[in-house]
Design a protein that fits this description.
This protein is mainly α. It has a domain at 39-126: Glycoside hydrolase/deacetylase (TIM Barrel, Alpha-Beta Barrel). The chain has helices at residues 2-24, 47-59, 72-77, 81-89, 109-126, and strands at residues 41-44, 65-68, 93-96. β1 (41-44), α2 (47-59) and β2 (65-68) form a beta-alpha-beta unit.
């Protein structure tokens, strides 16, 4: 039942948001008036992303967004905050994933709020700027 409600809400948002945006949207242009852009995102914050991925991006003068888990067991066994600080210092974005890998469909509203707010708080405390 919860999955059906979530699917319905997503469907409604996808129908309503474009209409709202058309009414108030002003066209913005990409840097150097380019016709489009590509976002390079990385999920879960694995070691290979912080090493191989960042090196490959840097070699091509590209930046990525890294959505990392922030609970202590994940950070301790995968990639340290020091490494993510270095990645951010090179101009890449460190973004909030969740605190854990738990299915969001199984969480209460309070647990969802905790997952996202605690994740963002951990990033803000550990990544300057």
């Amino acid at each position: 039942m919860k999955e059906k409600i979530v699917a319905l809400l997503i469907g409604l948002v996808l129908l309503i948001v474009p209409v709202i945006c058309l009414a108030s949207h002003q066209i913005t242009y990409f840097e150097d008036n380019m016709p489009g852009a590509v976002s390079l995102t990385f999920d879960d914050g694995y070691q290979s992303q912080a090493t191989t991925g960042v090196s490959a991006l840097n070699a091509r003068n590209l930046k990525g967004t890294f959505f990392i888990h922030t609970f202590d067991a994940w950070i301790d066994s995968h990639v340290s905050w020091d490494t993510w600080q270095a990645v951010a210092a090179q101009g890449h974005e460190i973004a909030s994933h969740t605190g854990t890998e738990e299915s969001l469909l199984r969480l209460s509203e309070l647990e969802l709020h905790q997952q996202f707010s605690e994740s963002q708080t951990a990033i803000n405390q550990n990544i300057p700027g």
